[in-house]
Amino acid sequence: MREYNFDGLIGPTHNYAGLSPGNLASQHHGGQPSHPREAALQGLEKMRFVSELGVGQAVLPPQPRPSLRTLRALGFTGSDEEVITRAARDAEHLLRLTSSASAMWTANAATVAPSADTADGRVHLTPANLTQMFHRAIEADTTHAVLRAIFADPKHFQVHAPLPGAAHFADEGAANHTRLFTPGHKAVHVLAWGRSAWQDVKGPQRFPARQTLESSQALARLHQLAPEQVVLPQQHPDGIDAGAFHTDVLAVGNERFLMLHALAFVEHPKLLQTLREKLGDAFRSEVATDAELPVKDAVRAYPFNSQVLSLPDGTMAIIAPIESRETPTARAFLERVVAGDNPVKAVHYLDVRQSMNNGGGPACLRQRITLTDAERAAVTADVFYSPALHEGLAAWVRKHYRDVLKPEDVRDPQLARETMTALDELTRLLKLGSVYDFQQ
Ligand SMILES: NCCC[C@H](NC(=O)CCC(=O)O)C(=O)O
């Protein structure tokens, strides 16, 4: 069994459109120019770094944007160029919503259970429907197609359809999911949620809670997890109101280790007690109180949106965003973690600022998928990281991506054409087959 971090390749329309209420970075940077080429190269450098640590790394492709399929479904007609020109003229906001490169945050692409944990011994993957935010909801169909193309072998994989319905089963994927395990104990799946569709639970007052309890319960069922392996904590409403729109803004776990802010979950001491009971004495946690690390700093600097990686030597390393190094409270907390009685022995700060400015740190950019050698061998797409793939992708980015993009540049039909040309080439590079609408 090996964990692979499937990073989202940042798409050519990466821009700051201010689309996500409750995501303070997105709101703050809305309207500013972005740098798509730099963004994609920053993402590739993170992949290189993780791979060189000896950790499994792979890549998921961007999606075609603007989404012409969505614009056509909303009544814009004519050629591709006419659809964009008409949307730009009559409904510019819809054009912005359908132009986001948000599929880069693959933590939100799906929730996955490895074969070791599921009743039928297969890997189960459920694409997130992302219904809470329109610009993200339109990712689900293509994500489903991409996952079906990569995890095609039914002997090893079951790719479910996204959860049905609208707001009741709102699902944001692995951003609200952590799998913990210790030797000799069954793995525990922590599936968090922010609101309930049918139960009367006090939620946030200011910002939307995205994931429902009912979605998390449905994922546990679909993935055939034993009830004793599932824990369903509520995200703290005050944490959401402070800008923690996903669980992974204030908590991250790996194997026998969980680090969290006191405002990550409702009644976190109870959660930690449950985890200790299920995982035994080897389980370790580090909690930041609001006095040590004010939630405002945690939301701005994203120390919890780190990747906690198991290294070949048995220790763990944290990949944190450089914003955490620049914020004294966040940095002090991470240094305390490295010095503490837990498996983490190093912290590395990486620059993913282009993504951070839209509220996506290192953890948002990756989907963790644990595969056996046989499962990995069943994947025929060329999505696993290698220096050669890196070279190919970096050259592809340099060839197709713009240096600067202002939000209003999505009005330019040429940008859509450039994106289609780039993605068509990418599917050949990654041996994915035809996964996009425009290739059908
Ligand atoms: N896991 C991190 C997700 C960040 C993502 N940001 C955005 O969609 C911002 C896009 C913009 O405002 O242009 C979100 O909020 O879902």
Automatic annotation (TrEMBL):
Gene Ontology molecular-function annotations: N-succinylarginine dihydrolase activity
One Pfam family from the record: AstB
Top-tier EC class: hydrolase
Region annotation Disordered: where it falls in the sequence: 19-38
InterPro entries with a match to the protein in the record: AstB_sf (IPR037031), SuccinylArg_d-Hdrlase_AstB (IPR007079)
Enzyme Commission code(s) on record: 3.5.3.23
UniProt keywords, alphabetically: Arginine metabolism, Hydrolase
PANTHER family: N-SUCCINYLARGININE DIHYDROLASE
Name the UniProt record assigns to this protein: N-succinylarginine dihydrolase
Organism: Corallococcus macrosporus
